[in-house]
TrEMBL record:
Domain HTH lysR-type: 14-65
Species of origin: Thalassorhabdomicrobium marinisediminis
Keyword NAD tagged: no
Protein name: HTH lysR-type domain-containing protein
InterPro entries membership: HTH-type_LysR_regulators (IPR050950), LysR_HTH_N (IPR000847), LysR_subst-bd (IPR005119), WH-like_DNA-bd_sf (IPR036388), WH_DNA-bd_sf (IPR036390)
Keyword NAD: no
């Protein structure tokens, strides 16, 4: 077996995947912290090896050819298998190592995810995590590009090319400061909200959210006090008394318990509950540790407080 050639091939595959992700040899070289000429050389060697052009060189970057896309899909499958092999060998030698890559909605990163990660690391202390957050489009993009192994997102469209492994629902309601007039109500209508300033999600968040329809139909422009790009910002604005906002119960339970916010359900029928999904890539080959973490995460989600008790 030509181990020297295999080592060179691993480097070329790594550079190739980075260049595709960045859409630029220059940006790939910066992220890899090596000279752009070294990246370009490896890509040329890879094209020579396969006997086909793998990139279109464009004025503003590069784009994979159909052959390049095929090679990229192979590389990602190979990297998944490589991680599984390394972990199983490590297990035989007495210590599993590795990284689990997660992309999650910010609401999930506050309580549920830390609890699941903490429990998991009691069993696998040498396995670490890469955790990123963002709006639904960003999260699902990380999944479809296989940059994340596990995605937890709100209101994901069924046509996404992914495997849905678990779902829970959480009702939507109004969050407000505890001394706000709406806090005394048992449920809130859109008419009730019309008297108060609103704090709404920013454009990127809203466009990929189940709230987009109700926001465009029911909230007047003059009502909007703040557009916030992250749930943490939105909750801070509400707690300060600037206005009220719509959010699921899941994600504000800690602030409710601490007396910093109140949550009141919307009148039944105004909007369906949010669906929180756990997704993994199609044809995913999980390492043993990843399967264990997924089981723990699903258990934590199933036990989560998704509405008032």
């Amino acid at each position: 077996m030509h181990f020297g050639w295999m080592a060179h091939l691993r480097i070329a595959y790594r550079y190739f995947a980075q260049a595709v992700r960045d859409g630029s040899i220059r940006r790939a070289s910066e992220n890899l912290n090596i000279a752009s000429s070294a990246v370009n050389r490896q890509l040329l060697l890879l094209e020579e090896e396969f006997g086909a052009p793998l990139f279109l060189r464009l004025p503003r970057g590069i784009k994979p050819t159909p052959e390049g896309s095929l090679v990229l899909e192979y590389i990602r499958r190979w990297q998944d298998q490589d991680r599984v092999l390394e972990e199983e060998i490590a297990a035989l030698r007495g210590g599993v190592r590795g990284t689990i890559r997660i992309a999650a909605a910010e609401s999930i990163t506050e309580t549920i995810l830390p609890q699941a990660m903490s429990e998991f690391r009691e069993q696998y202390p040498k396995v670490d995590f890469t955790l990123i957050s963002g709006d639904n489009f960003f999260l699902t993009s990380e999944l479809t590009s296989k940059e994340a192994e596990v995605v937890i997102a709100f209101d994901v469209q069924d046509r996404l090319r992914a495997s849905f492994v678990h779902e829970i629902t959480s009702p939507l309601g109004i969050i407000c400061s505890p001394n706000h007039p709406l806090a005394a109500k048992k449920e809130v209508s859109l008419a009730d909200c019309s008297f108060y300033p609103m704090i709404i999600p920013g454009d990127a968040w809203l466009q990929n959210s189940g709230l987009s329809g109700i926001m465009s139909d029911a909230i007047r422009d003059e009502q909007i006090a703040v557009r916030a790009e992250r749930p943490g910002m939105l909750k801070a604005m509400v707690a300060s008394g600037i206005g009220v906002a719509m959010l699921t119960y899941l994600g504000v339970e800690r602030e409710i318990d601490e007396g910093r916010l109140s949550w009141v359900p919307l009148v039944s029928g105004i909007i369906r509950p949010a669906v929180i999904s756990v997704l993994v890539p199609k044809d995913w080959t999980p390492a043993t540790s990843s399967r264990v973490f997924l089981d723990i995460l699903i258990r934590e989600l199933s036990a989560a407080r998704v509405g008032p008790t």
